[in-house]
UniProtKB/TrEMBL annotation:
Organism, as annotated: Anaeramoeba flamelloides
Name of the protein in question: Ubiquitin-activating enzyme E1 C-terminal domain-containing protein
Biological or metabolic pathway of the protein: Protein modification; protein ubiquitination
Ubiquitin-activating enzyme E1 C-terminal domain: residues covered: 917-1044
Annotated Pfam families: E1_UFD (PF09358), ThiF (PF00899), UBA_E1_SCCH (PF10585)
SMART domains assigned: UBA_e1_C
Bilayer-spanning residue ranges: none
Keyword Ligase belongs to the record: yes
Length: 1050
């Protein structure tokens, strides 16, 4: 190996949190550090090889070394997104090298031309990956060396709609975190002194633990011997678990919080066979619970394939050759018969059935010929959806091997996606699959020329050009989607590129930061396939852009694909797809988890029918007075940031600029009005900052108010010995008694708060910042902190269901009104020249700018609040993730999910029956692969006594014009359905009520006029107006109706 290719000696590497932040939230900091010390060797740069390499380079391993002895063929362009037609004939690895180097500046990319992979060469690598290697004996030899040296080994292959992965992480592999889920904590109310001792948790929530989990105890007032100790648990029920013998411990006492039990991740040892050993005793990951033999069936099919290649000089056969099928089938049967003979030999002499059952049956009763035929017919090449899926799965397995994070495959994963094939596949004329010497030959070999033509002529809308969007466009470019004369891809995303996007949105580079995502993505994929017809719009999809994404736009589409990261936008697109009867491909990821959903008109339910429920918010009384988790203090600090540095400056500016500001403020409740006037008056007079010392004084005063005064007031109102209304201790359970914090400039956390708060205050008043901590420390020491004097009669909300009755108390109302009137008089006149020149600069929260003090303030503020309540502190990274609501993300999961989505696209083009479509859920950390049939759309009867039904996909179209009246609509319903119209709702407005006083008058009005009179608005170019009709039949029975669409013909 040359000096340039030598693997560098391990050294401490600083992880770029700006780049890897979303990945760190999925893997953790320790795993990320391990990743940066890992050297990976990838043997084989086919489409699958480049997909794997791309994923691990983006992930940030230390180095990736690539090798390939094959030259680029035109068919390689079907899945290798960096090959161009001019590269045909060149070495695949050499062409890939410069492209991979551009992906991540922190990763060293090496190229080797070594064809002898001996111990001296392989020992330099942490992980070795063999990709689509046709010489299986050579692969076995590499596997043997890796197994003996303790090098993690992966072998993978895709052929048409078939794929397999094999993992060997050594004889002893330690899994530090099997699932990546956050450790659960439960609050304890009792522990019995018994054998076994039973722990009961707070009945307000389930403990969430599983049998065999380990927990660590803390803050126990009794049985203190358990504090800091770990015990393995036995699950009893959702509120109880046992922890073994506790008879020799002291009595449990319920005091304060009662104590906590926190789940602890205990390393698990895993053992793997080598590839050669595993051929004799394979272990399969189950993916199809209706066919437990699927893994075994595909295993023997692949063994037949590798034997075929060996006897045919490792040459890939052309598609749909009967003789190829027969040879592979014969090979598979021989391998299966051999295992059957071995089994029969092993059970000879064993008469006991139980003992016989202990001998594994590693054979099939019968080799499935149709499965083998499909494999043989399509073994010609790689498809981008398959390489995306398996490239994501293998990429994640490499990360597991590098970090010991998550559970590896054990040990074979074999899958087919034959539901995407055309109907009666083996009966289609062979000419349909004849190769054309084009980049699309592998697709033609699998789906045929007709389907490939349909793919190229498709007109599709991609909403979003982020992580999923980039991967989707790459797949589509390889598939040739939208490259035909009638084909087109529409893509829109209003966001610009940030540094953190580069870790998983691989179409972007450093030079693209601040550029529009969709426009940049379009340029990148055009390089991958110059024939793409693609249009970026760079605008948001919503009500405000319906002049662009109008009825003509939707009606000309063949379908829509979402690549979104929020529910609101998904619901909007979903509603449009339902209205215009368009299919929708939906997907999403969360760290190692991913899901896909296919939505088909008249067959399946829509996205809105089965979306996740909204997240539960934190109760306000918990946030304001009784936090018990770090999430509570972070949210509280985030709210403080918004109030102090965004809302208050905006209030000041509005007061100065709008003459009617006070009148508008008077429309709000008394409490809001009072607090707003206090802050406006303070920011324009008593606390107005003129220099940085004023900002520091303000920050110290804020510290004193938040972490001393408010806490002291709470303890004054509810002393430590206080009782609740039931005579029980007030400070118990989730109500943690707080402690007062006095400001100390020598305390680093205190100073961090003042530095961040004072600089934010300075930015608002356009005062120069100060980054000198020592100087700020000196300035803060000058401020004289006044003594705290508790206020009497202060009401504190102690329960979420309790309302603050201050407004019902005449005394409090009178006091507030007096203060409000005084503040109005004291506020400076906005017309005064000195005051009118003031223009504060509100802060807009931005989590990814480390120089703006936003996360610094929230981290310090949250941790001080946590210190008040004796809650474990959180570092800056964790605080940023929670405060910024950052979604953990991995390029591996994204790639896998988009591959599955694209396979569903083929089914849509083929107009499959519902049982052929697949919704999927992945959890690559476990790993788990769940595939299910979509839920059929529900149907509703018009009238309970009739059989006529409709679904969400049905609608009643009524043609009309701007002159159409309500009477016209009523008559249409009577003539066509014999129904009498009772009410009409449109744009969330009740525009007609037959029982109303103006019913007769309204009936004579035009629909457009009535909508506008009710506060609605119909744009001049609007063609459709959705309406909801309430009708009765001849028997005065209520009638259920689908959406009514009033079509305005112009």
């Amino acid at each position: 190996m040359s000096k340039e290719m030598e693997i560098e000696i391990e050294k401490e590497t600083k992880v770029d949190e700006d780049l890897y932040s979303r990945q760190i939230y999925a893997l953790g900091e320790e795993a990320m550090k391990k990743l940066t010390q890992t050297n990976v060797l990838v043997l084989g740069l086919s489409g699958l090889g480049i997909e794997i390499s791309k994923n691990i380079v983006l992930a940030g391993v230390k180095s990736v070394t690539i090798w390939d002895d094959q030259c680029v063929k035109i068919s390689d362009l079907s899945s290798h997104f960096y090959f161009k037609e001019t590269d045909v004939g060149k070495n695949r690895a050499k062409v890939s090298l410069p492209q991979l180097k551009e992906l991540n500046e922190y990763v060293n990319i090496h190229l080797v031309d070594n064809s002898s992979f001996d111990e001296d060469f392989l020992k330099n690598y942490t992980v070795v990956v063999c990709v689509n290697q046709t010489d299986f004996e050579k692969v076995l030899g590499i596997s043997d060396i890796c197994h003996s040296l303790g090098i993690k080994f992966i072998q993978t292959d895709t052929r048409g709609l078939f794929g397999q992965v094999f993992c060997d992480f050594g004889k002893s592999f330690l899994i530090t975190d099997p699932n990546g889920e956050p450790c659960l904590t439960t609050m304890i109310t009792s522990i019995t002194k018994a054998n076994p001792g039973v722990v009961t948790n707070n009945m307000e929530s389930r403990h969430g633990f599983e049998d065999g989990d380990w927990v660590e105890f803390s803050e126990l007032a009794g049985m203190t011997e358990l504090n800091g100790k770990r015990r393995q648990i036995k699950y009893m029920n959702p509120f109880e678990f046992s922890i073994g013998d506790t008879t020799d411990l002291s009595e449990y006492k319920f005091e304060g919080s009662g104590g906590y039990a926190t789940q602890v991740k205990v390393p698990i040892e895993s053992s793997h066979l080598s590839l050669r050993e595993s051929l004799e005793n394979p272990e399969f990951n189950i993916t199809d619970y209706s066919n437990f033999d699927l893994g075994k069936q595909l295993f023997y099919t692949y063994l037949g394939w590798y034997e075929y290649l060996k006897s045919n000089k490792f040459q890939i056969p052309k598609p749909h050759q009967e003789e190829v099928f027969q040879e592979i089938l014969s090979n598979a049967k021989k391998a299966n018969d051999k295992r059957k003979e071995q089994y029969e030999e092993a059970i000879k002499g064993i008469e006991d059935e139980k003992e016989k059952n202990k001998v594994p049956k590693q054979f099939l009763e019968e080799i499935p010929e149709e499965l083998v035929k499909s494999f043989a017919y399509m073994g010609y090449g790689e498809l981008s959806p398959m390489t995306a899926f398996f490239g994501g799965v293998v990429g994640q397995e490499i990360l597991k091997a590098c970090t010991s994070k998550f559970t590896p495959l054990k040990q074979w994963l074999l899958l087919d996606f034959l539901k995407a094939l055309p109907k009666d596949y083996d009966k289609i004329n062979k000419e349909e699959f004849e190769l054309q010497n084009s980049r699309y030959d592998p697709y033609i070999a699998v789906f045929g020329k007709t389907i490939q033509k349909k793919i190229q002529d498709i007109n599709y809308f991609l909403v979003g050009a982020g992580a999923i969007g980039c991967e989707m466009l790459k797949n589509w470019a390889m598939m040739g989607l939208g490259t035909g004369e009638n084909g087109k891809i529409h893509v829109t995303d209003m966001d610009t590129i940030e540094k953190s996007n580069l870790n998983r949105q691989f179409l972007f580079r450093n030079s693209d930061i601040n550029e529009l995502k969709d426009a940049t993505a379009c340029k990148s994929v055009k390089k991958m396939n110059p024939d793409l017809n693609i249009i970026p719009y760079s605008i948001r999809v919503g009500k405000e852009t319906e002049n662009v994404f109008n009825p003509d736009f939707y009606e000309n589409l063949d379908g829509v694909c979402n690549a979104l990261d929020n529910v609101e936008a998904r619901l909007y697109i979903d509603s449009n797809c339902v209205f215009y009867k368009k299919s929708l491909l939906e997907s999403g990821t969360l760290g190692p988890k991913g899901n896909t959903q296919v939505i088909v008109p008249y067959l399946t339910e829509c996205y809105a029918d089965s979306r996740d429920p909204p997240e539960k918010g934190i109760p306000q009384c918990t946030l304001h007075n009784f936090p018990n988790k770090i999430d509570h203090t972070i949210q509280w600090a985030r709210d403080k940031f918004e109030g102090l540095f965004t809302t208050q400056p905006l209030d000041v500016n509005n007061y100065l600029k709008h003459d009617d500001y006070i009148q508008e403020l008077e429309k709000k409740n008394l409490g809001v009005m009072l607090q707003t006037l206090r802050s406006v008056y303070s920011d324009l007079s008593t606390k107005m900052a003129k220099d940085f010392q004023d900002c520091v004084n303000w920050a110290v005063e804020l510290f004193t108010d938040l972490f001393r005064n408010q806490i002291a007031q709470l303890l004054f109102s509810y002393p430590l010995n206080a009782k609740n209304k039931r005579g029980e201790p007030f400070w118990t359970g989730k109500k943690r008694p707080p402690v007062v914090i006095e400001f100390d400039p020598e305390n680093d956390l205190h100073l961090d708060f003042v530095v961040a708060a004072s600089n934010l205050r300075a930015r608002i008043y356009s005062i120069d910042k100060c980054l000198d901590h020592n100087k700020i420390k000196e300035m803060s020491a000058k401020y004289m902190i006044p003594e705290f004097v508790p206020a009497k009669g202060v009401k504190i909300q102690v329960d979420e269901n309790e309302t603050n009755n201050d407004d019902d108390d005449d005394d409090f109302i009178e006091q507030d009104e007096i203060e409000i009137n005084d503040l109005k008089k004291q506020l400076p006149n906005p017309k005064d020249s000195e005051v009118s020149a003031i223009n504060l600069k509100p802060e807009k929260f931005e989590k990814d700018d480390d120089s703006n003090f936003h996360i610094d303030f929230i981290t310090a503020c949250s941790n001080l609040r946590a210190s008040n309540y004796k809650i474990p502190l959180a570092n800056r990274l964790k605080t940023k993730g929670i405060a910024g609501k950052i979604i953990p993300a991995l390029a591996t999961t994204t790639a896998a999910v988009t591959g599955l989505v694209c396979l569903e696209l083929y089914k849509l083009i083929l107009e499959k029956d519902i049982e052929c479509y697949t919704n999927s859920f992945l959890n690559l950390s476990l790993p788990y692969f769940g595939f299910s049939e979509p839920i059929k759309c529900k149907t509703t009867k018009y009238v309970p006594t009739e059989e006529k039904t409709f679904s969400i996909w049905d609608r009643i179209d009524i043609n009309g014009s701007i002159d159409t009246t309500v009477n016209d609509l009523k008559k249409w319903f009577t003539d066509n359905y014999k129904y009498e119209t009772v009410m009409i709702t449109c744009l969330n407005k009740l525009i007609y009520n037959s029982y109303g006083q103006t019913a007769e008058e309204d009936s004579a009005k035009t629909v457009i006029k009535l909508i506008e009179e009710c506060g609605g608005k119909v744009s001049p170019d609007q063609r459709y107006i959705p309406m909801i009709f309430m009708c009765e039949d001849e028997n005065e029975e209520d009638v259920e109706l689908p959406t009514v669409c009033f079509k305005i013909n112009k």
